[in-house]
Amino acid sequence: MPAAESASPSVSVIIPCYNCARTLPSSIESVLAQEDIQAQIILIDDGSSDDTPMLIRAFHAQYPDRILFASQPSKGPAAARNLAIGMASTDYIAFLDSDDMWTPGKLREQIAYMVRHPECGLSHTDAVMVDADGRQVRLMKSREAFNGQCFEKMLESNGLITSTVCIRRDVIGKCGLFDTTLVTRSDWEYWVRVAREYAFGSLNRPLCYYRVHDSNISRRIDQSFSDHATIIHRNIERYGGEISLRDVFDKAWFLLYASYAASFAHAGRYREALRNWVRAARLQPVNLKMHYTIARACSVSLLKKLLAPVLARGR
């Protein structure tokens, strides 16, 4: 480890910005409020049509020594992160989405952990899910499976929240940049590549607030399903020759079908839900938890659909 890093680690925080004028100020302020670490903030406007560009310029004018910014036509978060990575020259790079926030000690605890564990190329934390108004919904705990050597677990599914992740600068040189051909889930595809080369570190404390609202990109079910399947195919092309990973890929397909069966059911798209339910059942026919989860999602969605006219008349 370079002596400069151990003496005074430097950190860049990358925030892709797209039509986020309502939430961006709280995200930036949560970085400015970090204790003991004066992080550099890199804001990338991804072709916003609201007041986001104006806000970015205003924050830069107020903190010219700490905030860098650039803009690009709407290319998506992967391209925005790649542009920001090219602007960063720090020991560590942390990621924050423009609708999420950090607790004041997040970077201090995370960087201290990575300094103590030089084998760790990526660290992540727990998060608290909040709604559009900032009300706490539930705790999102990082699983122990995504600690240490976790390549096989990362092949199965994404257990990380992007806004909790911090990586060493060295990771970029070995693992490259984010895949811009993916509209969604480019973060997961990148974490897989990092897990192939480095150990992960999990800080089992909620140091991030993850905001959920109707405009979250994760709610684009069809695109997300397509990208998820593409990533599995690509991982099979890269690593499928390893016999020890065959069961891992079967598990990855099962988790894809089972999770999206429930997602399609919640969206009232029962034909797609049934199709993926059958696919999951072929891989794990006696998985009772899977059958219960999907059946419950279908039942709840149907009940809401049936009750909607009644509730509407009562208003």
Features:
12 helices; Spore Coat Polysaccharide Biosynthesis Protein SpsA, Chain A; 315 residues; 9 strands; alpha/beta; 2 domains; nine-stranded mixed sheet; 49% helix
Précis, in short:
This protein is an alpha/beta fold and 315 residues long. It is built from twelve helices and nine strands. Strands 1, 2, 3, 4, 5, 6, 7, 8 and 9 form a nine-stranded mixed beta sheet that branches.
Task: Give an overview in words.
This protein is α/β, with parallel strands linked by helices. It has two domains: 3-215, Alpha-Beta Complex (Spore Coat Polysaccharide Biosynthesis Protein SpsA, Chain A); 240-314. 49% of the residues lie in helices and 18% in strands. The protein has helices at residues 3-7, 24-32, 52-62, 77-87, 106-116, 151-156, 169-175, 186-197, 221-239, 246-266, 270-283, 288-314; strands at 11-17, 40-45, 67-71, 92-95, 101-102, 120-130, 136-140, 166-168, 199-211. Strands 1, 2, 3, 4, 5, 6, 7, 8 and 9 form a nine-stranded mixed beta sheet that branches. Helix 9 (221-239) packs antiparallel against helix 10 (246-266) and helix 11 (270-283) packs antiparallel against helix 12 (288-314). The radius of gyration is 21 Å and the shape is globular. The model is unreliable at 1-6 (pLDDT under 50).
* SSE string: HEHEHEHEEHEEHEHHEHHHH
State the low-pLDDT regions, or none. Answer: 1-6
Gross morphology is: globular
Distance between the termini: 64 Å
CATH topology of the largest domain: Spore Coat Polysaccharide Biosynthesis Protein SpsA, Chain A
Q: How would a textbook summarize the main sheet?
A: 9 strands, mixed
